């Protein structure tokens, strides 16, 4: 992590390294199995796997921003939002990222970018309309903490490897099995490859979910310590979470695929989803942590 005034989090760093190592190892083993089973398609598998990974790493911020409807805005177009980002960046002693707004009534915010130079922070029109200026500062501090700790890039890459496993499997099946349909071993390969692919996806899914929940708590903590106002961030969390129930189901469904990047998850099924599958800790966990930080700051 580059030097900023955001509080370092060794637990987050350890989890990011461990997650990337496990998923990377899993992915290497997966590609190795495919190469062993589909010997005739190995050039295509390597080209597709390498090409998609490089493209995702370099263009992940643009892909995410485009998918979530973000449009970059100038200080003249959004002076209030730029002012908040300027203040938090000055407080954190970090470079200012690009600033964007997403035209959505879902109150949320997110950050993307593989590093601070390529970072983008975005707030939705629904969030800007509902939060007070000090609450917005807490949310932006939370998002900029993700950028400073670089967990945005790790989450993007980690989640992509699971998707890539499915793509490479389809390419391998199309390219390697079509010419060998009369081979007695083909039936076994057709069964094994989807099973291996499913296992890779499930393991990568669970690893990214565990990292995602921890990084949200870490960002809450770092933002609260930086601004010195955990109660304001708690107010923003409570307000945004409460407003989610009033958003049309159709809008929430459009936002759900990007929950891992959002400040608060957009859920159509309420809080009944299994904690194991959640991208975020519960609201109660986040508020309890902010309450403890308030007590710590009061003692200091």
From TrEMBL:
The keyword Cell division does not apply. The keyword Acetylation does not apply. GO terms for biological process: proteolysis. Keywords: Cell membrane, Hydrolase, Membrane, Metal-binding, Metalloprotease, Protease, Stress response, Transmembrane, Transmembrane helix, Zinc. The active site is at 143. Residues 75-291 form the Peptidase M48 domain. The chain crosses the membrane at residues 12-35, 41-59, 152-173, 185-207. It is found in: Cell membrane. One of its GO terms (cellular component) is plasma membrane. Its main location: membrane. It is a multi-pass membrane protein. Its cofactor is Zn(2+). InterPro entries: HtpX_protease, Pept_M48_protease_HtpX, Peptidase_M48. One of its GO terms (molecular function) is metalloendopeptidase activity. Zn(2+) binds at residues 142, 146, 216. Binds 1 zinc ion per subunit. Its EC number is 3.4.24.-. HAMAP family: Pept_M48_protease_HtpX. Belongs to the peptidase M48B family. This is Protease HtpX homolog. The gene is htpX.
